[in-house]
Design a protein that fits this description.
The protein has helices at 3-23, 36-54, 59-83, 107-126, 136-162, 182-199, 217-235, 239-260, and strands at 90-92, 99-100, 104-105, 166-168, 176-177, 180-181. The chain is mainly alpha-helical and 262 residues long. The radius of gyration is 18 Å and the shape is globular. The relative contact order is 0.14.
Length: 262
């Protein structure tokens, strides 16, 4: 792809993040209504993620992987909305926007694409020193699932308690994280592992041109999202969530930058 396309999308995404940070402060927006800024952010995040991958992989591989993730992620949340399995009892709120097939909001499949592909990119940075070992691929899959679960730990308080994109129904099990049942986070990891079993072959560069360079785009997007969630948590008095977001962001950044230096 043309380099200017990638950089244009990156600049637009960074600008959108900046506007989203500003919009976190109290405004006159009515609650529980679809927000065009959030819609633009998830759309640019998806486009930027695919553009970053397109720099080292054939376009058909990138689009194929994105399609598989989007379909599987949308299907998982459709089943979850109807049956409460595997994520636990929840309902999507009006703020999540228009729904596909009157069940799952249109942004949910894109969210899965962004989270899976960028978590995998961060995992590749962290594990870069071991990229020539025989078990490298399995470690990437496992660490990606763990990073997806960490991302959801940061996302859920923002989505359910700040944005009201989805709402959790209380369960008999009293232990939750900011109102979300713990099975939700384990299920995100499990669904991620299932997806990666299908998409990993498409994400392997079978014709590398020389030594690979570390790609910091996934890390930047991943950390930018966590920072957005942390600031929103602080402004809404969700201090445990803010502390967890900050801790996960710092630890991930340290290991990713250290790994990329090899």
């Amino acid at each position: 792809m043309a380099a200017w396309t990638y950089w244009l999308l990156t600049i637009l995404l960074a600008a959108n993040f900046a506007v989203a940070f500003i919009a976190l402060w109290p405004s006159g927006n009515a609650p529980d209504t679809p927000d065009w800024l959030d819609a633009l952010l998830i759309s640019l995040a998806t486009a930027g993620t695919l553009a970053a991958l397109w720099r080292r992989l054939p376009l058909q591989n990138v689009l194929g992987a994105a399609l598989i993730i989007a379909v599987m992620g949308g299907a998982a949340h459709t089943v979850g909305e109807i049956t409460d399995i595997p994520f636990g009892p929840f309902t999507f709120g009006p703020a999540a926007g228009p729904k596909l097939f009157k069940t799952v909001p249109w942004a949910v499949p894109l969210l899965w694409v962004v989270v899976i592909l960028n978590s995998r990119g961060v995992a590749r940075l962290i594990l870069r020193p071991w990229r020539k070992t025989k078990t490298y691929g399995l470690w990437v899959i496992g660490l990606t699932a763990a990073l997806v679960m960490m991302f959801d730990l940061a996302l859920d308080p923002f989505a359910s308690r700040v944005g009201h994109y989805w709402l959790w129904t209380p369960t008999k099990f009293p232990v939750t994280w900011q109102g979300a049942p713990l099975v939700n986070f384990l299920s995100w990891a499990a669904v991620s592992l299932f997806m990666l079993a299908f998409v990993t072959p498409l994400l392997i560069n079978k014709r590398p041109k020389g030594p690979s360079r570390p790609d910091y785009h996934p890390l930047g997007l991943w950390l930018g999202a966590l920072l957005l969630f942390a600031v929103a948590a602080v402004l809404n008095g969700l201090w445990p969530a803010a502390a967890a977001d900050a801790g996960m962001g710092v630890v991930t950044a340290v290991f990713a930058i250290r790994g990329a230096g090899w």
